[in-house]
Amino acid sequence: MPNTGSSSPELAGKPPVGLPLWLLAELTYRCPLQCPYCSNPLDFARQGEELCTEQWFKVMAEARQMGAAQIGFSGGEPLVRQDLAELIGEARRLGYYTNLITSGIGLTEAKIAAFRKAGLDHIQISFQASDEQVNNLLAGSKKAFAQKLEMAHAVKAHGYPMVLNFVTHRHNIDHIARIIDLCLALEADFVELATCQFYGWAELNRLGLLPTQAQLQRAERITNEYRERLKAQDHPCKLIFVTPDYYEERPKPCMNGWGSLFLTVTPDGTALPCHGARQLPVQFPNVRDHDLQHIWYDSFGFNRYRGFDWMPEPCRSCDEKEKDFGGCRCQAFMLTGDASKADPVCGKSPDHGIILKAREESEHSAVNIEQLTFRNERNSRVIARG
Ligand code: SF4
Ligand code: SF4
């Protein structure tokens, strides 16, 4: 499949637009689990009808024609889609590198074999905790932990690299050594220890999830000790530690720049430059109404924060803007009500006090797991009703 990089247009006075190399296909918002840090929209229960198989085929073909090379199937829980093997097979036929991002709930040996046959390249399984009880409490399911363990073994047995993802927060981060030990016992090849990022349900539960600085520093130190030990043993397992930007002084270069590399298509066909962007007061296009060529290059939503012209001060005259693009638009909107502002994580932002206050609050939080708002249909409907 030809890469159509040469067609990347240069909009008048703006830098050339990059290619949508990474397509995230959010197949569904349905999910049997209820993680209180889920990044899905709070009002997911009122979103429109899911795209059908044929519509996803069209999205994948158009994105591939425009240069997309990797596809991630996620959700919700993508395994609830009965056409998942078919979608994987088509993605493979089109030449994508294919990733499945799953909780492992609903996975079976037969499904792994079918996905393998369809050409799936990569499976990532997420865990909630190293302890069965905490894992199941966070997931909202009594069977989740045992099923995840069984499927992690099965994935490895089918010849896939073992890629595990642990979302850490104040209720499990003190168990980081046990988490890493579990990953090693499962013969993991890659482990992402990702402190939850505060979007969607995680933002709603921030007071009950944000670790303290001391918790974070301890976890990072222990992870580094494990890294040293594994390196000395020539062990193949790689540990990736992701800190929450609430403890940084500069924001992350969100999505590597708005509309520059990542393209998300949500279950109902809304196209977004990032999976959190749906909450912004911006009109985003839908793949039912437009082709991806128009969506990526010409739509208002994908051009809204491209380049640098939209930036107010302090970003406009800042010599770091080409490094971080002013940070995350969703975070700016969630914390200040204005998506054009500098991300408050930045120490130069006049709103940085919001971040300092959140850090301070985390020192005194007494919110326990049972008090978190779990991500489920009922809670989503209540939130959507306002
Ligand atoms: S984070 Fe949890 S609730 Fe959200 S989609 Fe993933 S498994 Fe489901
Ligand atoms: S002021 Fe804006 S561009 Fe400069 S470092 Fe902060 S967020 Fe980045």
Automatic annotation (TrEMBL):
Pathway membership: Cofactor biosynthesis; pyrroloquinoline quinone biosynthesis
InterPro entries given in the database record: 4Fe4S-binding_SPASM_dom, Aldolase_TIM, Elp3/MiaA/NifB-like_rSAM, MoaA_NifB_PqqE_Fe-S-bd_CS, PQQ_synth_PqqE_bac, PqqE-like, Radical_SAM_PqqE_MftC-like, rSAM
Cofactor: [4Fe-4S] cluster
Stretches assigned to the Radical SAM core domain: 17-232
Reaction catalysed by this enzyme: [PQQ precursor protein] + S-adenosyl-L-methionine = E-Y cross-linked-[PQQ precursor protein] + 5'-deoxyadenosine + L-methionine + H(+)
Gene Ontology process terms (BP): molybdopterin cofactor biosynthetic process; pyrroloquinoline quinone biosynthetic process
Keywords of this entry: 4Fe-4S, Iron, Iron-sulfur, Metal-binding, Oxidoreductase, PQQ biosynthesis, S-adenosyl-L-methionine
Gene Ontology molecular function, alphabetical: 4 iron, 4 sulfur cluster binding; cyclase activity; iron ion binding; oxidoreductase activity; S-adenosyl-L-methionine binding
SUPFAM superfamilies: Radical SAM enzymes (SSF102114)
Gene3D superfamilies (UniProt xref): Aldolase class I
Cofactor note: Binds 1 [4Fe-4S] cluster. The cluster is coordinated with 3 cysteines and an exchangeable S-adenosyl-L-methionine.
Functional note: Catalyzes the cross-linking of a glutamate residue and a tyrosine residue in the PqqA protein as part of the biosynthesis of pyrroloquinoline quinone (PQQ).
The family this protein is said to belong to: Belongs to the radical SAM superfamily. PqqE family.
Stated name of the protein: PqqA peptide cyclase
